[in-house]
Amino acid sequence: LASLGPLGSTPANTETYGRILNSSPKREWRGVDLLGPLVEACRGDDCSGSDCSGDGDSSTKKEEKKGKRKKKRLRIKVDTDVNAPALAEFLDYNNNLHGNSNNNNNNNNTY
After folding, report:
1. CA-based angle 12:88:53, to the nearest 5?
2. What region, left, alpha or beta, does residue 56 occupy, with left being phi > 0 and alpha being psi -120 to 50 degrees?
3. Is the peptide bond before 6 cis (omega within 30 degrees of 0)?
4. What is the pTM of this model?
5. How confident is the model at residue 13 (pLDDT cuts 50, 70, 90)?
6. What count of other Cβ atoms lies within 10 Å of the Cβ of residue 17?
7. Which residues, in sequence order, are CB contacts of 83 under 8 Å at separation 6+?
8. Are the CB atoms for 7 and 19 separated by under 8 Å?
9. Which residues pair with 7 in a beta bridge?
């Protein structure tokens, strides 16, 4: 997730992670939770806190035994709109450097 900043991008700080910080000059955006609604929409269930990006808890396993839908782990990275493209370029370069590219010179953007 890449967003305007300042953005809470430290996973250990659960109060601000995925939120626009209160120091933003954009008053209307201060404190807005960007990550929570996105995670909820992607998973299709109601979750909060670290459970959204974790492996689930014992209650999830009990629900699986009862035939309910299994919660899937999401890989989440939150950063600013300035840092995210640089990280993506680094990862792409690193994958190409080590021969892990799935590009096959066809330049289509399928994921």
Report:
1. 35
2. left
3. yes
4. 0.57
5. very high
6. 20
7. 2, 9
8. yes
9. 20
